[in-house]
Amino acid sequence: MSAWFDQLAGIIRSFDQWWIDALDILVVAFIIYQLLQFIRGTHAVQVALGGAVFIALYWTARWLNLQTVTWLVRTTLPYAVFGAIVIFQAEIRKVLAHVGKTPLFGLFSQHRTEEVIDEVVLAATTLATKKIGAIIVIEREMGLRSYIETGIALDALLTYDLLVNIFTPETPLHDGAVVLQGDRVAAAGCFLPLTVSPELSRAFGSRHRAAIGLSEDTDALAVVVSEETGTISLVISGHLQRGLDGHALKKALRGALETSADSEKNEFLAEGPRGASRKA
To answer: Which of 51, 119, 132, 266 lies 20 to 30 Å (CA to CA) from residue 252?
Structure first.
């Protein structure tokens, strides 16, 4: 009888260990899958393939007992790791921000979102009619404090009149971007990083490049009004959608603020490719 209980206990222990091993494999598979999904369609794919070739070369050299090649790969591997960190610093920052993000508890409720969209659309169309340049940045889940600190703090209730007044030429705050946090204007006259993408048309000015540069580093949305043509553009995830009127801008903003990051990017790619060649 005792032997039977010992055997049963052994089966239960092995069963528990099997579940632990299965969970371990599933977690690793999920992490790898999410990583592949994240880098899909970016320049990181080519670098990742290069790393895979590098690893394959190392194991092939060990299998064929190529001592010199093995020593060379093993010696350069630590430097390659540091090089990958430098190359992928933007991607790593986005991954960590995505993992650590928390829901915006009530920040963009349906009612507040509609109010914000209406005020932004009205201001953008008014500025476009007068051909007054503007950049309106809408913060989402990733904080923009480092960019807010480059401008003048306002912390004012968002209104159409305030936005139009800020971007009116010859006023102290017209040169720079406005950053919105929820239904508040956090700051004005903010400086944004310019994109260094070689794929971007030279026809785009500093406003569009700054908006694209910010959206490449964060999940923020940016509404841009061209000073030369009065064209309204929406920038998200490094992609630019141009030639929007009030209705199209409102629809695009509503879709971007109410959908997930992945669906936003896919929809945007379908509607307007990055780096369009039309004059800004």
So the answer is: 132
